[in-house]
Amino acid sequence: MPEGSNAGEPLLAILGGTVVDALGERRADVLVAGTAIVEVGEGLEVPTGARRLDAEGCVVAPGLVDLHAHLREPGFEESETLETGARAAALGGYTAVVAMPNTDPPVDGAAVVHHVRTLAAKATCRVEVAGCITAGRGGERLAPMAEMAEVGVRIFTDDGAGVQDGDLMRRALEYARGLGVTLAQHCEDASLAAGGHMHEGSWSSRLGVPGIPAAAEEAMVARDIALARLTGGRLHLLHVSSAGSLGLVAAAKAEGIALSAEVAPHHLALSDAALAGFDPVFKVNPPLRSPRHVLALREACASGLVDAIATDHAPHPPEAKDLPLEHAAFGMLGLQTALPVAIGALCRGLPAFGTAPDDHAGPSHMSLANLLGLLSWGPARIAGIALDQGGDQGGPLVAGGPANICVIDPGATWTVDPAQLASRSSNTPYAGWELQGALRHTVFRGEPVVVDGQAQR
Q1: Got the DSSP string for 126-179?
Q2: CATH of domain 63-389
Q3: Known active-site residue 312
Q4: Using one digit for the tens of pLDDT, what is the confidence trace for 97-133?
């Protein structure tokens, strides 16, 4: 029995892989007892009776962390439940997700926080609960953030709608600073975006579809950066999609403003030309942008300007998506496809879907290690659940650390079949796509919840 393990606890051995975490890359086996890693090294002696997981040819990494998932429960269980959303997350390599608060009732008080946690108690990944910035997400008065912070909520957002009232957002940032929490903003000026269904540009003009200008996002990014500067509050920008927004983020970070930003995989892999056939599966908010914006997002990921890649997993039942474009709901699935889609866009440099060869929405050629930083330890820190913050996510994979681990086969290919996804909904834009990069195993708190690509519960 390796030193540090507990006699009688089940042993798990992850063998033959390459460990990749914030400490670097090395060939190593990983031995787990109970909920903790007990030994990491090459050619470990595996005790008799230990369960073995084959990681030959694979990357063994800290579990992925999603800052932005709509798990819909309570209130919209026809789209998703905490159980099905967590299973989809585990199948995508995630060991933690932050559940957005636009549920029914909204998560705008400690009682709802407790309710969601109770529902998620047996989930196959850690479910962190985000609280609302405003009561009922109504944008008129602040929610009781102190009450929710006291029970452990670390991120607050009205996602699905930006806080339109600048003075209210200022007070929210002041309040958040005192509480030591982060405000995550859906950056969209509602008056500029009103009536739009896709990115305002050449394709919206060609199709005759009312557009949402990039300026709708950029105006609120600029306003909230100014408010973060004024208040000293910590601001996180959800699903940044515009080149102009990235310029504002770069300037704010250079100034030392407490700011982080995420991008979504679909904004890296798809362009507004995907809507040429009026298919509402490609309708999302913020909208898919033109190749110029796609390229800027890819470059921002590669340069380190962006802090995280987050799925914005947004399941909808057929009756909400199988409608004319103007009437269909915004949103698409993301948890099971985020990793390979990001590998394709950022590591393999595949052209964005819908772009012409001369659009150059192109290669960034990031290393997988840097990509994993945007999918695991980077978002873990923003969520406040990283190991050095007293949490259990994002690694590194070392003896004594928590056993939240994903095993990835970067060369394996698979075809997306909506009917085979774990979500209750099937609104994936990647139906029929062959993706490279497959999740082999996921270990959550020492338990193999996905083995050889199959959910275990």
Answers
A1: EEEEPBPSBGGG-SSSB--HHHHHHTT--EE--TTS----HHHHHHHHHHHHHH
A2: 3.20.20.140
A3: yes
A4: 999 999 999 999 999 999 999 999 999 999 999 999 9
CA gap 131, 142 in Å, rounded: 11
Minimal CA–CA distance to 348: which of 338, 356, 358, 340? 340
* Cβ atoms of residues 30 and 40 within 8 Å: yes
Domain spans of the chain, in order of start: 11-60+397-455, 63-389
**CATH code that applies to domain 11-60+397-455:** 2.30.40.10
Rounded CA-CA distance 226/309 in Å is 24
What pLDDT is recorded for position 447?
A: 97
Tell me how far the alpha carbon of residue 432 is from its chain's centroid. Answer: 22
State the Cα–Cα distance between residues 303 and 246, nearest whole angstrom.
12
Q: Among 328, 218, 241, which residue's Cα sits nearest to residue 288?
A: 241
As a whole number of angstroms, the distance between CA 12 and CA 76 comes to 37
Q: With bands split at pLDDT 50, 70 and 90, how would you rate the model's confidence at 198?
A: very high
Q: What average pLDDT does the chain have?
A: 95
Choose the catalytic residue: 189, 272, 312, 409.
312
Confidence of residue 1 (pLDDT cuts 50, 70, 90): very low
Position 9 scores a pLDDT of 72
What percent of the chain is modeled with pLDDT above 70? 96
Cβ-based neighbour number of residue 96 at 10 Å = 28
Distance from C-alpha of 427 to C-alpha of 264, rounded to nearest angstrom: 16
Residues 6+ apart with CB under 8 A from 141: 134, 135, 168
Q: Do domains 11-60+397-455 and 63-389 have the same CATH topology?
A: no
Amino acid at 281: V
pLDDT at 365: 79
**CA neighbor of 393 nearest in space, from 157, 384, 280, 412:** 384
Indicate the burial class of 64 (C-beta count within 10 angstroms; 0-12, 13-18, 19 or more). Answer: buried
CA gap 372, 178 in Å, rounded: 32
32 DSSP β-pair partners: 12, 37
